[in-house]
Write a structure and sequence with these properties.
Elements (H helix, E strand, L loop, with lengths): L3 E4 L3 E4 L14 H24 L20 H25 L17 H12 L1
Antiparallel strand pairs: 1-2
Length: 127
C-alpha cells in the first residue's frame, strides 16, 4: 500500500517517511514554477545591477579630483589578503587565551557520557 496524497494539479507526492516505489516524487509543478520565477528574478536583478553600474565613468575625472598613486601587487596582496588573515588569527588567539570557561562545561571526548555507559556504571556499582 502506497501512502500518497494528491498535491498540486493531480500529481501524487509520496509520504517522505515511506519508501517510494520506483522514484522519489517530492517535486511538483508548483516547485518548478517557483524555481523558474526565482531564477528569473535573480537574473533580472543581476542584469539591472550590471547595467546601472557604469565602470566607464571612472575614466571621467571630476572637478577637484586628485587621485594618488596606485598600489603595487605586493601592497594589494598585503592589504586585502594578509591583513585580514592576521586580524582573524589575532582575534582567534585572544579568544583562546582569554577563555575563562570551566573545563567540565566544555564538550570534549573525555567528558561525554552516553546513557548505556551510565547504565553499565550503575549496574556495576549495584553488584
Amino acid at each position: 500500500m502506497v501512502d500518497a496524497a494528491p498535491h498540486g494539479r493531480g500529481r501524487l507526492i509520496r509520504h517522505p517517511g515511506r519508501a517510494a516505489g520506483t522514484a522519489v516524487g517530492y517535486f511538483d509543478s508548483v516547485d518548478k514554477k517557483n524555481a523558474l520565477r526565482a531564477g528569473a528574478l535573480v537574473a533580472g536583478t543581476t542584469l539591472m545591477m550590471l547595467l546601472m553600474s557604469s565602470p566607464a565613468s571612472a575614466l571621467n575625472r571630476d572637478d577637484g579630483d586628485d587621485p594618488g598613486t596606485g598600489l603595487s601587487v605586493i601592497e594589494t596582496l598585503g592589504l586585502f589578503v594578509v591583513a585580514p588573515i592576521v586580524i582573524f588569527a589575532v582575534i582567534a588567539g585572544l579568544v583562546m587565551v582569554l577563555d575563562k570557561s570551566k573545563e567540565e562545561h566544555r564538550v570534549t571526548t573525555r567528558n561525554i557520557r552516553t546513557k548505556p555507559a551510565e547504565a553499565e556504571a550503575r549496574a556495576g556499582s549495584k553488584a
